[in-house]
Amino acid sequence: MRAQFVLSEIGVGLRRNLTMTFAVVVSVALSLALFGGSLLMSDQVNTMKGYWYDKVNVSIFLCNKSDAESDPNCAKGAVTEDQKKSILADLNKMDVVQKVTYESQDDAYKHYKQQFGDSPLASSLTPDQMQESYRIKLKDPQKYQVIATAFDGRDGVQSVQDQKGILDNLFGLLNGMNWAARAIMALMLVVALMLIVNTVRVSAFSRRRETGIMRLVGASGFYIQAPFIMEAAVAGLIGGTVACGFLVIARYFIIDHGLDLSHKLNLINFIGWDAVLTKLPLILATSLLMPALAAFFALRKYLKV
Questions:
Q1: Subunit comment for this entry (predicted)?
Q2: Which helix (H) or strand (E) holds 138?
Q3: Fewest CB atoms less than 10 Å from the CB: which of 107, 124, 152, 242?
């Protein structure tokens, strides 16, 4: 097979169907950009889970005088010193507990004023209305239920709360957005494949006289099909390169510069450049193989060789 002939045929085919080639490039670029973005989103969610789940605490809120009047869990009155000592002693005996921190009513009031000092409710609160609590750092954040089972409903305990539940709602939302992006990506891939098949079909039809002559002179099936397959592969590779550019530009301007989220949202542990760069070869390989395979199977139907 003469490489020069194949390359010339690729160039002719791409120029002859320029509009459809452009549509293939754009659809492949968008679908693979969404593909790479969904992969990076999954990495980001997993990174955030590892970062935040390691920092979550279980809080045991103790009954105060106000709770004794209004909360059924505190019907026996405010927590006593003996009850607090008993709870702390039991916590220190548990293997799942890594660290226990006590927060007094004054400390809780100060923290509330720092976080919600501008709210109308803050001016009407007093320290004695706040709850004392034990903040428990677990060795394994998944073992929250051990603490809840041991202390929920105990005398002097108003409630046991797990911060992990709040994070689970956040990560559930992020995962939902990620699956929505994947659904759009799948739709775009279907559109890209349909465009590739139609482009190959039009290209094969417009060159049916040349392929007929090649059959008559004994050219092999692969020799005839190769230019069409490589046309699709080249168009896909261009789209994949554009998709990689989108991801790199998005990472640079959204996180590092431009919006500069890495500094504005310093509580979020963003994924690094290594996560982005490791996805680029996969995107390029997909952009090359997907159109080539689509063209190969389309030619079996539309090009009788």
A1: Forms a membrane-associated complex with FtsE.
A2: strand 133-138
A3: 124
